[in-house]
Write a structure and sequence with these properties.
By secondary structure, the protein is an alpha+beta fold. The chain contains 17 helices and 16 strands. The protein has helices spanning 9-17, 52-55, 99-111, 133-147, 162-166, 171-180, 202-219, 234-238, 243-252, 274-294, 307-311, 316-325, 347-361, 376-380, 385-393, 414-434, 447-451, and strands at 4-6, 75-82, 114-119, 125-132, 151-156, 183-185, 195-200, 223-228, 255-257, 267-272, 296-301, 328-330, 340-345, 364-370, 398-401, 407-413. A 4-stranded mixed beta sheet has the order 1-3-4-2. A 3-stranded antiparallel beta sheet has the order 5-7-6, with helices on one face. Strand 3 and strand 4 form a beta hairpin. Keywords: Cytoplasm, Repeat, RNA-binding. Its main location: cytoplasm. Residues 149-217, 221-289, 294-362, 363-429 form the K Homology domain.
C-alpha cells in the first residue's frame, strides 16, 4: 500500500546530506538521462509502508529511514522542485494538509509510486518520487498537472506531420507526454488546423515544443541541416526575447530550432529551401564566430536563494540584461548547489551587466521575525484581518507561518519587506506585553467538555 511522508525542511536536508555519493543517484527534470534507471547500489532507500505522519503522530517525520526494506534493482528516484510562484496550494495553514495531501495519496494509489514532500528555504516545494520507472514517470506527470500551475502554448507544424508526433497506436505521443510531463493536444484529422497545443510548466512546454519540431524536421521534404553550437552561445543566437532568430527565420523562410535552456543539447536544426537555408546557416555561423572572438567571461557568487530574482518571472530579467548590455547571464540549475553565476559578453559591457545582476539579486529579500508559535493566530487575526492590513499596503510581500516554528518568514521587495517586518515586530511586542501562554495537562476524557458542542468553547480569548 502506498503512503505519504511529509518531511520538515530540516529532516529532508539531513536525510539527503547524510547519504554518500555511492548511495544515491538523483535524476532531475533537467537531466537528459532521466530515463536511465540507476543500478542497485545507486537506488534510493525505499519509503515507508505506512507514513509516520499519518499513522503515528509521536514519530518524527524522518523516522522512515530506519524502516528499510530490500531494494529491487528496478527502483529509481527522481527529485524535482516546484518554485513558490508555481505552487497551486501555497496558502495552506499547515504544510502537507488539505487538498495537497489528498492529491498525493490519489497519485500514489493510482501509479504505485511513493512520494515525499518538503518545503525548501525559498518556500518552493521539493518532491521526491520513488518506484519503478513507469510508475515514477506517470506520478511525475500527475504531480505537475495537479500541484503546479499550468501554462499553455501552441506550435505549428505541417498537418501531414501530425501523425508522426502521434506514432503507432499513439505510443509516440504518450511517451512524449511522459518525458516532458505535459498534455499535448493534436487537432483531429478532419480539423484543418496545424496548431498543436501543449499544456504544462514553462520548462515542460519548452522541451515538448523542441521535440515536436525535431519530429517535424525529420519528416520535412525540404533541406535539413544541423549545426553544432556551444550551449553558452545559444542566447546570443536567439537574441533578447528570441527576436534575432525570429528575424532570421522571417527573412530567410527557414525554420530554426534552438534547444531551450532546460534541454542539454548543442545542436541547432535548420529546415527550409536549400538556398535560403544556406543563408540562415551562414548568418548563425557568423554570429557564433564573432561572439567566440569578442566575448569573455567573469564568474561571481550570488546566494542560491537570490538566483530566482536574477532570472525573473519566465526568465524576463535575464532577457532584460541581455537586451540592455548584450551580456548573457548563466544561472546554475535549481537542483545544483552551486552559487556561481557566469556572465559572458564583451569586456566593456560586463561591468554594467554585473551591476544589474547584483541589483536584481538584492531587489528582493527573505527575512524573519521571532514570534512564539502560540502567538501566530493572534498575529494573523480573525479571518486574517491583521495580516490583510499589511498585505494590502504591500501586496508583493509573501508572509509565511510554519506550525511549530517560533518565527515568521517574509519574502518580497527589500523595501516592502523592511516595512512589513517593522509592523509585525511591533505587533508581536504589543501582544507579548498583553498576553501570556501556558500548557496544562487535562485527562482526554474531559476534552469534549472543554471543546463544547460543535467547538463552541474552542475559541477562547
Amino acid at each position: 500500500m502506498s503512503s505519504v511522508a511529509v518531511l520538515t525542511q530540516e529532516s529532508f536536508a539531513e536525510h539527503r546530506s547524510g547519504l554518500v555519493p555511492q548511495q544515491i543517484k538523483v535524476a532531475t527534470l533537467n537531466s537528459e538521462e532521466e530515463s536511465d534507471p540507476p543500478t542497485y547500489k545507486d537506488a534510493f532507500p525505499p519509503l515507508p509502508e505506512k507514513s509516520a505522519c499519518l499513522e503515528n503522530a509521536q514519530e518524527p517525520a524522518g523516522a522512515w529511514s530506519n524502516k528499510i526494506r530490500p531494494i529491487k534493482a528496478s527502483v529509481i528516484t527522481q527529485v524535482f522542485h516546484v518554485p513558490l510562484e508555481e505552487r497551486k496550494y501555497k496558502d495552506m495553514n499547515q504544510f502537507g494538509e488539505g487538498e495537497q495531501a489528498k492529491i498525493c495519496l490519489e497519485i500514489m494509489q493510482r501509479t504505485g509510486a511513493h512520494l515525499e514532500l518538503s518545503l525548501a528555504k525559498d518556500q518552493g516545494l521539493s518532491i521526491m518520487v520513488s518506484g519503478k520507472l513507469d510508475a515514477v514517470m506517470k506520478a511525475r506527470k500527475d504531480i505537475v498537472a495537479r500541484l503546479q500551475t499550468q501554462a499553455s502554448a501552441t506550435v505549428a507544424i505541417p498537418k501531414e506531420h501530425h501523425r508522426f508526433v502521434i506514432g503507432k497506436n499513439g505510443e509516440k505521443l504518450q511517451d512524449l507526454e511522459l518525458k516532458t510531463a505535459t498534455k499535448i493536444q493534436i487537432p483531429r484529422p478532419d480539423d484543418a488546423s496545424n496548431q498543436i497545443r501543449i499544456t504544462g510548466t514553462k520548462e515542460g512546454i519548452e522541451k515538448a515544443r523542441h521535440e515536436v519540431l525535431l519530429i517535424s524536421a525529420e519528416q520535412d521534404k525540404r533541406a535539413v541541416e544541423r549545426l553544432e553550437v556551444e550551449k553558452a552561445f545559444h542566447p546570443f543566437i536567439a537574441g533578447p526575447y528570441n527576436r534575432l532568430v525570429g528575424e532570421i527565420m522571417q527573412e530567410t523562410g527557414t525554420r530554426i530550432n534552438i534547444p531551450p535552456p532546460s534541454v542539454n543539447r548543442t545542436e541547432i536544426v535548420f529546415t527550409g529551401e536549400k538556398e535560403q537555408l544556406a543563408q540562415a546557416v551562414a548568418r548563425i555561423k557568423k554570429i557564433y564566430e564573432e561572439k567566440k572572438k569578442k566575448t569573455t567571461t567573469i564568474a561571481v557568487e550570488v546566494k542560491k536563494s537570490q538566483h530566482k530574482y536574477v532570472i525573473g518571472p519566465k526568465g524576463n530579467s535575464l532577457q532584460e540584461i541581455l537586451e540592455r548590455t548584450g551580456v548573457s547571464v548563466e544561472i546554475p540549475p535549481s537542483d545544483s548547489i552551486s552559487e556561481t553565476v557566469i556572465l559572458r559578453g564583451e569586456p566593456e559591457k560586463l561591468g554594467q551587466a554585473l551591476t544589474e545582476v547584483y541589483a536584481k539579486a538584492n531587489s528582493f529579500t527573505v527575512s524573519s521575525v521571532s514570534a512564539p508559535s502560540w502567538l501566530h493566530r493572534f498575529i494573523i487575526g480573525k479571518k486574517g484581518q491583521n495580516l490583510a492590513k499589511i498585505t494590502q499596503q504591500m501586496p508583493k510581500v509573501h508572509i509565511e507561518f510554519t506550525e511549530g516554528e517560533d518565527k515568521i518568514t517574509l519574502e518580497g521587495p527589500t523595501e516592502d519587506v523592511n516595512v512589513a517586518q517593522e509592523q509585525i515586530e511591533a505587533m508581536v511586542k504589543d501582544l507579548i506585553n498583553r498576553m501570556d501562554y501556558v500548557e496544562i495537562n487535562v485527562d482526554h476524557k474531559f476534552h469534549r467538555h472543554l471543546i463544547g458542542k460543535s467547538g463552541a468553547n474552542s475559541e477562547w480569548g
